[in-house]
Amino acid sequence: MDDVRSRTTLEDVARVAGVSRATASRAVRGGELVSPVALEAVRRAVEQLGYVPNPAARSLVTRQTDTLAVVVPEDDARVFSDPFIAQAIGGVAEALAHTPKQLVLLMRARGQENDRLLPYLRGGHVDGIVVLSHHRDDHLERELAALHLPLAFIGRPLEPQLAVPYVDVDNVAGGRLAAEHLLAAGARRLATISGPLDMPAAVDRITGWSEALAEAGVTEVARYEGDFTLVRGEELGARLLAEHPEVDGVFAANDLTAAGVLHAARAAGRSVPRTLRLVGYDDTQLGLTTHPQLTSITNPGRDLARRATRMVLDQLAGQPAPPPIIITPVLVERASG
Which residues form the HTH lacI-type domain (predicted)? Predict the structure, then answer.
């Protein structure tokens, strides 16, 4: 059967369907300018003959590669250790599962230039781009927008004037939720370990946190800039507890950072939540494996990625770039806070 299918041509499909080769070609490519009757006839012929379009030939005709790039400007250690990034990549794959398209993961270590990434993207290797975990010094927004490929960011872009399509969680609201929860629990000597402040998510979370504290008339004890990793979270958690032993509530930039703070608290002899309340961010599976389990703010990476991928697919189908999608976060209360 495989040999028969490999020998079946588009001309065979057209003959069995009773249409011209041009009509059969348009039908196989998606049905543009093909009547419903002809489209159904071609569909039946394809099924009967087991016709499989040649991908290389199809790409020459359609100028599409059936490949989407997920661009993550992080090194491999961050990409493969961060559960939010893993969720997001899984969301892109899920969104492509019922399409002919596949994804290619493009990573770039921090501090590297875009001189390898951009030529690859310009070279016609991908049909569209989803960007995840971008930083200010990446300069990706302007450079990727100039490629004129279907594009969507997961996370608010730093250059709003470019009007790049994106999906995001309302991180300002998320930071506010963390502060309000710790205050409601009775914590008053509060500190935060942020993410990298060259990333919009980290900036927005700090903004919401600070606004809520100011409205409550509470001044934070300390603030440290982290990098969204467990190791740095533990280092800064230990420093925080040594320099400010009076602290009774911590907002960590993500669940990895929060898990690091938990390790530091245990080493310092602090009891969570009896003497130290802790709130993380992202609500990943990691928070269910810690002891105690993490109170955390939702940041649905898989859903955000599905929506961003859908934006790219819609642009590929000829639709205009969509407006931003902003998801409202919620606080999931567990034992740490």
Answer: 8-62
